[in-house]
Specification:
CATH topology of the largest domain: Transposase Inhibitor Protein From Tn5, Chain A, domain 1
Number of strands: 22
CATH superfamily of the largest domain: Transposase Inhibitor Protein From Tn5, Chain A, domain 1
Structural class: alpha+beta
Helix content: 40-55%
CATH architecture of the largest domain: Alpha-Beta Complex
Largest sheet: 9 strands, mixed
Number of domains: 4
Shape: flat
């Protein structure tokens, strides 16, 4: 840029920068941090070369390069008044450095020995510079991210509002409040360099979505989901919980909108964003480009430091429970194991979905009867459902208010001790019975029964049952207590033979309704399968592990291994002597040769060795504790798991609303409404904008029938008069003719 196009005017307490004759920004004339920051922003934004800026600021090009380097390394604090020219190196230090260099030490070793930086060592060893040579050009490129390092909130508040928050278009006396998002005055929606410069200066906290007309925009169908997101409480609650994430181009709304867009477009990992066309995704977000992988990781890490993901999930879950309008507070509880394949040491547990033992962490989910997820409660070291039930009930009570909760779960929580805890907490339960007593088939009624739309040849049978409560002893075994829990047992005859036993504390519901409640538990399983397949539910958006609380204990691995060894030795002894192991006493196991003297000499020798090995194993296991601290283990980061689950739950909820609209216009019977909605999200289309409208015209689908369904969906969303999140633009949808 010619020097005449950049002009710096200072009058009194303020300075003004003019680009091409138009006022660009104003800042205090303090000749300090703000003074240097303005020069750096001009260079970082590409508005002028370093030579032109240095001439306007009356400094050398080297000084400007130093300012940029300090800012990139330390942020705005690197431009504080305490920074200046480096201290001079004394002749004594130079001689010491030269002597160490003659000993053939490398630069880093010399720096550590003398106590200075490697750059200072280079400067001390360099030959005198030739003053006739011009200064080297600045070789560092502009940062890739574009949103820069966020300035601390304290620095933003201390600035002079009249000077720093003024951005005028040719009028030095007027201006808009820069604390709000950038307005529709953006000259080119595809070039947001000015907004990025304002974000670096700490003025802009979230770039406003501004759309450019486009004849064909990929993924324009995702506007369907963003339209309902504007009506959902998701973004509002995130703003309420997190408020903001400081001065940034990609602020709180932009980050969560990007994560939501990734979910609906099936971009299942943060790393996959780098494989997408960021410019096309930016058109959907109303930005020049979507955040990069590095930016998303940094923003997610910043949000995780707040520790507010559980509060956000609780607020959203409460709203969805109230909007569901269910008459009874019937909540479904089940655990899901998030597997881990990294190098860290993670506790192992059994995964029912994979039917094997895996390393990972268990999350307990709370869902509604239709599968809508409400809560996700992480565990630190794979606690069982029975152990975490009191905590689950406390969290669920916050959703339901004064309603009496009925929890529904599978055999993983079936225990009389667990039932006792649930009743003590003032809640009810419906669960499968693990060990039902035998029943005569003649007790079932002869009339047919219909449960959840399925016809059963015979009606269920009901009886009262008392289940004994067992307590766990220190040695890991269970003892029978004198307490019992009286439950209502309902046995549903299967058409192929046998019966399914269901126990409950609800005595006010008909038998068929109780059975229908527990049989609807598969909606929660279907949600897990759908979320894993479509949203990559098990993906970790933050790598690494967190240490486990040292107060948590787990079975001693050495003790467990010795128990297996003892069991193997006993089986080998029983196999040799031909006697059931349970019929043999301990003396016979320790000295089996006394009982079987007439056996072959080789077998007698084996028995003697096995008896000695059994004795040694018994002595060793007696000296080992059964449980030890889990301090050496780690667990998956709870906050990042919750944050990712919150976004995926929001996407599932919005897609469910779209699926309901599609279902009203579709006569299909295979329940593939969500699949159709996912296909609509991938549709391309055109974008048109006015002062108040955002018009989306989607391309036609593969078949006339699908095109007609999409057109009806567009009409219903247009009637809703929803606005794009973060703007006042009303969204209008249609399908191309």
């Amino acid at each position: 840029m010619p020097s005449g196009q950049l002009e710096l005017r200072c009058a009194g307490p303020e300075c003004a920068i003019y680009l091409g004759g138009r006022l660009f920004m104003m800042f205090p004339n303090d000749r300090g941090t703000t003074w240097r920051h303005a020069a750096v922003m001009l260079y970082e934004g590409g508005h002028a070369t370093q030579g032109v800026i240095a001439e306007a600021w009356d400094v050398t090009s080297r000084s400007l390069r130093n300012w940029v380097t300090w800012y990139r390394r330390d942020g705005i604090s690197g431009l504080d008044d305490g920074r200046g020219r480096p201290l001079l190196i004394t002749e004594e230090v130079k001689r010491q450095i030269a002597g160490l260099r003659e000993e053939r030490l490398d630069i880093n070793s010399i720096a550590r020995r003398v106590g200075i930086s490697p750059r200072t060592v280079y400067r001390a060893l360099a030959p005198p510079a030739n003053p006739a040579l011009p200064s080297l050009p600045f070789l560092e490129d502009a940062p890739e991210e574009g949103d820069g390092t966020e300035a601390p909130e304290a620095c933003a508040e201390e600035r002079d509002d009249e000077a720093m928050n003024r951005l005028c278009d040719g009028d030095a006396d007027g201006g808009d409040d820069a604390s709000r998002p950038s307005s529709g005055g953006v000259a080119n929606p595809l070039d947001r360099r000015t907004d990025r410069a304002l974000a670096r200066m700490g003025v802009l906290r979230d770039a406003e979505p501004v759309f450019a007309p486009c004849e064909r925009a990929d993924f324009a169908g995702s506007f369907l989901a963003l339209a309902l997101l504007g009506r959902d409480s998701f973004l509002g609650e995130t703003q309420r919980v997190y408020r903001d994430i400081g001065a940034a181009f990609y602020g709180l709304r932009a980050v969560f909108s990007t994560l939501f867009l990734m979910a609906v477009l099936r971009i299942k990992t943060v790393e996959q964003v780098g494989r997408q066309n960021v410019l096309r995704l930016g058109r959907i977000l109303g930005l020049d480009r979507c955040p990069s992988v590095r930016t998303l990781r940094r923003k997610i890490g910043l949000l995780c430091l707040r520790g507010q993901a559980m509060n956000l999930m609780m607020l959203l879950g409460k709203t969805r429970f109230e909007n569901a309008g269910v008459p009874d507070a019937v909540l479904y509880i089940d655990g899901h194991v998030k597997c881990y394949y990294g190098p860290g040491r993670i506790g192992k547990t059994y995964s029912t979905s994979r039917n094997c033992v895996v390393a990972g962490s268990t999350d307990f989910w709370v869902n509604l009867g239709d599968g809508t997820p409400l809560l996700c409660i992480p565990t630190e070291f794979n606690d069982s459902m029975i152990a975490r039930m009191p905590d689950i009930l406390r969290q669920a009570a916050k959703l339901c208010g004064d309603r009496r909760i009925t929890v529904v779960f599978d055999r993983g929580g079936s225990s009389a001790a667990c039932y006792e805890r649930i009743l003590a907490a003032g809640c009810d339960f419906v669960a499968y019975n693990r060990n039902p007593a035998a029943i005569d088939d003649e007790l079932f009624g002869p009339e047919q029964a219909i449960i959840n739309g399925k016809t059963y040849d015979r009606s269920p049978y009901e009886r009262e049952t008392e289940l004994a409560v067992y307590a766990r002893k220190p040695n890991g075994k269970y003892r029978k207590t004198r307490r019992t829990v009286a439950v209502r047992e309902i046995l549903v005859p299967r058409n192929g033979g046998g019966a399914t036993s269901v126990v409950t504390s609800r005595r006010d519901l008909p038998r068929e309704q109780v059975a229908g409640i527990i049989f609807s538990r598969w909606t929660q399983e279907n949600y897990f399968k759908y979320a894993v397949e479509e949203y990559n539910l098990d993906h970790l958006c933050v790598h690494g592990t967190e240490p486990v609380d040292p107060d948590i204990d787990h079975p001693n691995p050495e003790h467990v291994q010795l128990e297996r060894t003892i069991k193997t030795i006993r089986k080998r002894i029983a196999r040799i002597v031909g006697t059931d192991i349970d019929d043999m006493t301990d003396p016979e196991l320790y000295q089996p040769q006394e009982r079987f003297r007439n056996m072959h000499a080789r077998q007698g020798k084996q028995l003697a060795e096995l008896g000695e090995a059994l004795r040694n194993a018994r002595e060793l296991i007696a000296s080992l504790p059964r449980r030890v601290s889990a301090a050496e283990y780690g667990h998956l980061p709870s906050e990042s798991r919750l944050l990712a689950n919150v976004v995926k739950m929001a996407a599932y909820h919005v897609e469910g609303q779209l699926a309901e609209i599609v279902k009203a216009h579709w006569k299909g019977i295979n329940g593939n409404e969500r699949g159709m909605v996912a296909g609509f999200m991938q549709a391309a289309g055109s974008i048109e904008t006015t002062d108040t409208l955002l018009k989306i015209t989607l391309e036609r689908q593969a078949t006339p029938h699908m095109t007609d369904i999409l057109a009806r969906l567009c009409d219903d969303l247009t009637v809703c008069a929803t606005t794009y999140p973060g703007t006042q633009l009303r969204m209008v949808f249609q399908v191309a003719k």
